[in-house]
Design the sequence.
């Protein structure tokens, strides 16, 4: 069997293993979904009217204006939330000794990482679909998006998920246990809170605007918002792709270097 065939076979086996774990323990994924869904409902139904007025609609603004604004940000926040599971599961595999067992077996060395990454990306896409369904249920509509825009939006979600998953896997490999991995991956949930997911960057205090503008979530959110709502994307498209590519390469190299180290 060629090296490529061996890698595909073993990676597929590891992917089935991770998906089986996700199916047996759905509460882990549901817990990660709870934060973006609760924030979506909170900001729409508690702060929606005030936020709509703040977006420029005045006191007579409709809540649907803010629903349209916030849903793209919540969708990418869902990606960050879901990928925390990759860090936790990777740390569990390392601390429980199963990775040490895999090292002694005649399997492709990179298949363990690939199985975690592909499994996490699939879970992220499914989570985005579920949160998107909640958004549609509360009034989100994407009337300006055609087939090409929807395909581009899906590609962005997959690419963004791939980038964050590789970073999360590196966090899991560098953590001594699952609890530490979950804590180290918390920025994947916190960063969207200081992006343009909830309010435009220009409405923030001056000292926090650079943090909101120069981070991976903001260009990705603005690109997704432009694809779904027909708003201007500008330079955010290539910035989002650049961020995703850089984080994917960085996370891959970091994860491989940690995984290839001799166990202590």
Sequence:
């Amino acid at each position: 069997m060629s090296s490529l065939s061996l890698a595909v076979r073993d990676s597929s086996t590891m992917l089935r293993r991770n998906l089986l774990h996700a199916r047996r323990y759905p509460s882990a994924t549901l817990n990660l979904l709870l934060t973006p869904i609760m924030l979506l409902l909170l900001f729409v139904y508690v702060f929606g009217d005030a936020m709509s007025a703040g977006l420029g609609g005045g006191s007579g603004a409709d809540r649907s204006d803010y629903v349209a604004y916030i849903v793209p940000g919540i969708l990418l926040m869902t990606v960050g939330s879901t990928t925390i599971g990759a860090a936790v599961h990777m740390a569990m595999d390392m601390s429980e000794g199963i990775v040490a067992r895999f090292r002694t077996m005649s399997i492709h060395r990179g298949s363990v990482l690939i199985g975690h990454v592909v499994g996490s990306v699939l879970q992220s896409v499914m989570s985005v679909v579920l949160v998107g369904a909640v958004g549609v249920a509360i009034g989100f509509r994407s009337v300006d998006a055609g087939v090409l825009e929807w395909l581009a939006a899906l590609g962005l979600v997959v690419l963004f998920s791939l980038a964050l998953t590789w970073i999360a896997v590196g966090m899991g490999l560098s953590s001594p246990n699952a609890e530490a991995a979950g804590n180290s991956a918390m920025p994947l949930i916190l960063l969207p809170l200081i992006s343009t997911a909830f309010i435009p960057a220009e409405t923030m205090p001056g000292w926090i605007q650079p943090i909101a503008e120069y981070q991976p979530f903001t260009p990705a959110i603005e690109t997704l918002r432009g694809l779904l709502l027909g708003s201007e994307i500008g330079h955010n498209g290539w910035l989002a792709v650049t961020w995703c590519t850089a984080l994917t390469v960085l996370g891959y190299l970091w994860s491989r270097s940690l995984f290839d180290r001799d166990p202590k």
The chain has twelve helices and no strands.
